[in-house]
Write a structure and sequence with these properties.
L-arginine/glycine Amidinotransferase, Chain A, single chain, alpha/beta, 28% helix, 11 helices
Length: 338
């Protein structure tokens, strides 16, 4: 029997998008100023102007953070004082659901991506964002993150076993337990399981780095880029798994591939989990993270060809990636009531 909950697709209008300003020098070290510059460019593109302007709220934890955010962004975003550990609002913030014409916020347990990075203040972000949105917060007895869940808007969700079923998140849960919880709290009727995500990803394979719905039954993933792409094997595996998936009415997924960033290394020469999939949508535009100009342009053009009704814009994210993610990771979207 169908329950009362639903999660809109992210291409639907958003009432507001929340994020957190990077400002902690102990966390970001030499990448702090470059990350702030990338944040400012991303937020400016996301905010837009005129009839398609997107409301954005940025949390700032200190006087210094607030001052640097205002200097970088001017009036392009609302800036609110609030505590948080780091900027990853997709994971520390709530998932918003619709229930009988009301908006509610759902908060999973957050344990620092399986106990890797637990910071004071991250546990409070969900409540802060729910309060700012003016909606009740419902806590769920499951360790999970928003970046692990990709909703199709019609009762389906993509996720990865590597993350949700991790022994460091939910060691006593079965897949059936998780599916029951997703149904009872999010209204999800169909779970599409991918086995694993990118190599070198401290989130243990978040779906928002590997596969994104652009319509029900239509999903975008990445193809390897170059002979030295460190993600080649897993990208091919993901594409093959997606192509075997079917919608509830028995139709196979339509899978669109765009080029991956290829080999992206940190300052020590170690591969990074760079992804063009970590985009954010607002009204008529998609803001795609890029790390090198040539692969980024190719990926943006491929997505633009697949989605002619959208404007695919690119913005650099290498410094933000040094902290662990990109644009989708740092945002939390509040759907507009329709």
């Amino acid at each position: 029997m169908k329950n009362d909950f639903s999660i809109p697709h992210e291409f639907a209008p958003q009432d507001r998008i929340f994020t957190c300003w990077p400002a902690d020098p102990d966390l970001w070290e030499a990448d702090l100023e470059p990350a702030q510059a990338e944040f400012a460019q991303f937020v400016s593109l996301l905010a837009g102007e005129g009839e398609t302007a997107q409301a954005i709220t940025i949390l700032a934890a200190t006087d210094q953070a607030e001052a640097s955010a205002r200097a970088a962004l001017g009036n392009r975003a609302e800036i609110v004082r609030a505590d948080y550990g780091d900027v990853w609002a997709r994971d520390t913030g709530p998932v918003f659901r619709l229930r009988k014409g009301r908006m509610e916020a759902v908060q999973f347990r957050f344990n620092g991506w399986g106990g890797k990075y637990e910071l004071p203040g991250d546990d409070e972000v969900g409540g802060v964002i729910a309060d700012l949105a003016g909606v009740p917060l419902k806590k769920v007895d499951l360790t999970c993150e928003g970046g692990a869940l990709e909703f199709d808007g019609v009762g389906g969700v993509l996720t990865t076993r590597q993350c949700v079923m991790s022994q460091f998140r939910n060691p006593d849960r079965t897949e059936a337990d998780v599916e029951d919880l997703f149904y009872s709290t999010l209204g999800v009727e169909t779970i599409y399981w991918v086995d694993r995500g990118l190599h070198f990803d401290h989130t243990d394979g978040h779906i928002d780095n590997i596969a994104r719905f652009v319509a029900p039954g239509v999903v975008v993933c990445q193809s390897p880029n170059g002979a030295d792409d460190p993600q080649a094997d897993v990208l091919q595996e993901i594409s093959a798994q997606l192509r075997r998936m079917k919608t509830p009415d028995g139709k196979r997924f339509r899978v669109i591939e765009i080029p991956s960033p290829g080999k992206v290394e940190d300052e020590d020469g170690k591969p990074m989990p760079a992804s063009h999939m970590n985009w954010v949508s607002a009204f008529d535009r998609i803001i795609m993270p890029i790390y090198d100009e040539s692969p980024g342009k190719s990926a943006a053009q491929a997505l633009q060809d697949a989605l002619p009704e959208k404007k695919v814009l690119t913005s650099p994210a290498r410094a933000i990636l040094s902290g662990g993610g990109a644009f989708h990771c740092v945002t939390c979207n509040l759907p507009r009531m329709t």
